[in-house]
């Protein structure tokens, strides 16, 4: 188990969170603005706003902050695959709980890869609303070149 | 729903966009801004997405775009075509097959590959991708939307 250290030490079997938060209109609008999704469901009136499914990716940072207080580690990560399934809308004001499981860590061509599966649950209903699998390379430079 | 949008083989795209330094920085600074969720703008330490020197230290030739920008552009295209319900129920998987560098032209595309009954409606399967102005794939993936 590597939780409590830095992100680059995370290993298969590690559990991150759960972390609870309430989805705010500021977060939905700010994120959507940054990626130029100017649709009313993301940047309109507060009562109309829903969470962009891509926003789950930033919940990873909530989990890292909680589980890896030492920060990133020696190298920048490269995110290379995003894989989401959304089961029902997540609305502004919803109380949410996110949990992460490191389901794999492996080496390929001298690089370390980590797979994180995250589940987002609506606290009031207890229902799973989003499942997300995030795949990263822990360092762009291969271990051989970095040595 | 326009029936044409449901036909296998139907293809949609966004207007070409250059991946500018500003677009990369918008995403970088959105992350701490969203983490703080206090209505103010926050900025980040140097990253591979906004600082050339830091990117070169990590083995890159210069800054590269965060892959989630292209994923969000794909999501935006799906919402343009199929409406806001996509944000409340969908599957989307993207893989970053080539780095996107500063000033590279990015064209976001989707093509319907299948339509099948699902509950009271239909499930549309699509290939989704971003390519440069020479047709080289930068991001690839697939999506399912429910209409």
From TrEMBL, chain A:
InterPro entries noted in UniProt: FAS1-like_DH_region, HotDog_dom_sf
Chain ranges of the FAS1-like dehydratase domain: 13-124
Stretches of the chain forming a coiled coil according to its record: none
Pfam families from the UniProt entry: FAS1_DH_region (PF13452)
Gene3D superfamilies: Hotdog Thioesterase (3.10.129.10)
Protein name in the entry: FAS1-like dehydratase domain-containing protein
Source organism phylogeny: Bacteria, Pseudomonadati, Pseudomonadota, Alphaproteobacteria, Hyphomicrobiales
From TrEMBL, chain B:
Native organism taxonomy: Bacteria, Pseudomonadati, Pseudomonadota, Alphaproteobacteria, Hyphomicrobiales
Pfam families to which the protein is assigned, alphabetical: MaoC_dehydratas (PF01575)
Domain MaoC-like: start-end pairs: 48-118
Protein's name in the database: MaoC-like domain-containing protein
CDD domains hit by this protein: R_hydratase_like (cd03441)
């Amino acid at each position: 188990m590597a939780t409590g250290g830095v992100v680059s030490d995370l290993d298969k079997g590690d559990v991150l969170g759960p972390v609870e938060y309430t989805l705010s209109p500021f977060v939905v609008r700010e994120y959507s603005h940054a990626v130029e999704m100017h649709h009313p469901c993301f940047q309109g009136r507060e009562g109309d706003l829903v969470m962009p499914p891509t926003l789950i990716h930033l919940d990873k940072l909530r989990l890292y902050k909680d589980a890896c207080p030492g920060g990133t580690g020696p190298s920048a990560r490269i995110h290379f695959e995003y894989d989401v399934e959304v089961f029902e809308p997540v609305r502004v004001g919803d109380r949410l709980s996110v949990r992460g499981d490191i389901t794999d860590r492996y080496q390929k061509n001298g690089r370390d890869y980590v797979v994180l599966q995250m589940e987002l649950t609506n606290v009031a209903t207890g229902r799973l609303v989003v499942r997300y699998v995030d795949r990263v390379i822990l360092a762009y430079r291969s271990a051989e070149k970095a040595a | 729903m326009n029936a044409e949008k449901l036909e296998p083989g139907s293809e949609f795209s966004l207007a070409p966009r250059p991946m500018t330094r500003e677009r990369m920085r918008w995403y970088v600074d959105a992350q701490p801004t969203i983490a703080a969720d206090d209505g103010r703008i926050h900025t980040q330490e140097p990253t591979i997405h906004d600082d050339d020197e830091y990117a070169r230290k990590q083995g890159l030739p210069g800054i590269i775009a965060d892959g989630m920008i292209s994923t969000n552009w794909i999501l935006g295209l799906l919402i343009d075509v199929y409406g806001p319900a996509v944000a409340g129920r969908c599957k989307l998987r993207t893989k970053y097959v080539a780095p996107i560098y500063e000033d590279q032209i990015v064209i976001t595309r989707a093509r319907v590959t299948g339509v099948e009954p699902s509950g009271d409606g239909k499930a549309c399967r699509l290939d989704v991708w971003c390519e440069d102005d020479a047709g080289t794939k930068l991001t690839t993936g697939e999506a399912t939307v429910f209409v």
